[in-house]
Amino acid sequence: MRVVVADTFPPELDAVADASAGATFYHTSGWMSSLAGAYPRLRLRCLLAEEDGRAIAYLPYFATRRGPFESLWSLPFATYGGPAGDERATGELLAAYRRQLERRSVLEVNWVDYHNAFDPAGGEVEPALTHVVDISQGFDVVWRERFDTSRRRRARRAEEAGVVVRRATAAADVRAFFDVYRSRLERWDASSAHPEALFQSLLARGGKRVGLYLAVHDGEVVGGQFNFYHRDTVTSWYGMASTRGNELHAGVLLYATFMREACEAGFAACNLGASLGKESLIAFKRALGGDPHAYRAVTHRRRVGRLLAAARAWRRSR
Question: Which residue range forms the structural domain that includes residue 210?
């Protein structure tokens, strides 16, 4: 077995991800190619473990440069990362990733360990939390036993008010979702919005792995939900409702609809995504039947990287 670095994402790695219990949608070409295209400053790299001329495991990451220094992220935006594939090789891949710090230009390497499967080995550990709904017994059970009474009531009210949820199919649908997304972020004064190009690329490239649901009322899109599908899990990546959509309880109907269809398609779990410490989001996910799942982000830094990180933290605290 040998470990090599590739500056592309070889197409055969999707098959490795499909066979790996440790992989997520974020380990697939749909995410990698979309992220690389939408963020030119992120340079895609991939550590490959090869045996008999074929990849048996890999660790994808993106490099960002600031002046003479690089930071490596597996994966950016707190999405799940780290190694995936044959377990005989994943430990060696992670060790090779950590050794990138031996390069003078690399300040830090970061990886997100969703399955809590690897030793952080002296890295700085940042805890993270998501909520996962067991949907393996079918939507009738999810609806009766997982959704709380108030959420069921709100979903019915949305239907009674004429809200209709449908699957998106075209670029115009993504644009309508993005308009809602942008308007909500403007109200929150958020500065870290993803570009429309990322959403467009995900729907265009993702195939069956990506689904966008839209909530429509009187011909107007009042909410949307981007989901990722991998192995037995559907991951709720980005959901957003307009002010009008919130008044109509469109968000709850969106969740109920895509979870019902995921159950019908045979998925066993619904990952509701990170809540970023927001108690309102955590309460919402619990009300949908989400059980907490703790995971972690691990960062290894050279001494100069630690000093720069401390300086950044000090500036933010002022």
Answer: 136-267
